[in-house]
Q: What sequence folds into this?
């Protein structure tokens, strides 16, 4: 595995000691247990259906999740979205989707559900190695929005993915792009405060921190102050109409930093 490089093996092993396998076919968990043996004492937790998979995700806090899709009624996309939008400790854990259906629709669906990697069945040891290396040694930024929660889709790594390739230098990493994306998410979250309050508030809290970092990077005290005001509002979490009014005022203050051309931008969120 990994050309037998012990240092790489150690780095990968440290990040996947608890592995959840949600698959109605018990042989999949046994196969993965055999293939992961070179990594040392990896604990495999098999689950035959979505309900038991979610229950195990809550109790064992897996560091890596394999989920089957489109077999025996298994909806791996649903489980992925549920975990991503939950309060589970493992909600950001890498998820590798395994399926016999490697259609474009399934691959794009996996990406948009928040899956890290996609692996066609039957898979080889080489297939597994590439996915493990991607999810452990090549981490992606986490996107906490309203419509999407998961790893940055612009850097989708799956070998099955046939869409635009990621670039060595991605403009999305620029300060201006970070500002634009964070503000778009804030705006979307504000619109979802009534329909999806839990995720909206989570997205606002994360973007307030991101906007403060952007403000500090560009030395813009007004942006820093506006972001800090939103952070304080999210921490207080006080109920009532006045608290909502205060929250919307803080959001409006941040929206003043949105460039006109950003209004039609799409971004990763």
A:
């Amino acid at each position: 595995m990994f050309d037998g490089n012990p240092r790489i093996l150690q780095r990968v092993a440290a990040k996947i000691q608890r592995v959840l396998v949600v698959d109605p076919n018990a042989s999949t968990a046994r196969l993965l247990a055999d293939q992961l043996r070179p990594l040392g004492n990896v604990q495999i937790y098999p689950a035959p259906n979505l309900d038991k998979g979610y229950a195990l995700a809550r109790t064992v806090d897996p560091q890596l999740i394999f989920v089957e899709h489109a077999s025996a009624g298994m909806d791996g996309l649903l489980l992925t979205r549920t975990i991503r939008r939950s309060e589970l400790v493992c909600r950001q854990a890498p998820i590798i989707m395994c399926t016999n259906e490697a259609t474009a629709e399934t691959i794009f669906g996996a990406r948009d559900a928040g899956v890290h990697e996609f692996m066609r069945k039957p898979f080889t040891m080489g297939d597994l190695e590439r996915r493990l290396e991607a999810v452990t040694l090549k981490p992606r930024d986490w996107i906490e929005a309203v419509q999407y929660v998961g790893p940055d889709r612009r850097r989708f790594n799956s070998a099955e993915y046939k869409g635009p390739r990621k670039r060595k230098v991605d403009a999305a990493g620029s300060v201006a792009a970070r500002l634009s994306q964070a503000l778009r998410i804030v705006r979307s979250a504000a619109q979802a405060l009534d329909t999806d309050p839990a995720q909206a508030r989570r997205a606002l809290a994360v973007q307030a921190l991101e906007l403060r970092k952007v403000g500090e990077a560009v030395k813009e005290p007004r942006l820093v102050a506006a972001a800090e005001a939103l952070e304080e509002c999210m921490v207080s979490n006080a109920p009532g109409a006045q608290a909502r009014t205060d929250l919307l005022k803080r959001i409006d203050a941040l929206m003043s930093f949105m460039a006109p051309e950003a209004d039609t931008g799409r971004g990763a969120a």
Remarks:
- Strands lie at 18-22, 43-47, 64-68, 95-99, 117-120, 142-144, 149-151.
- The two ends are 35 Å apart (CA to CA).
- The mean pLDDT is 88.
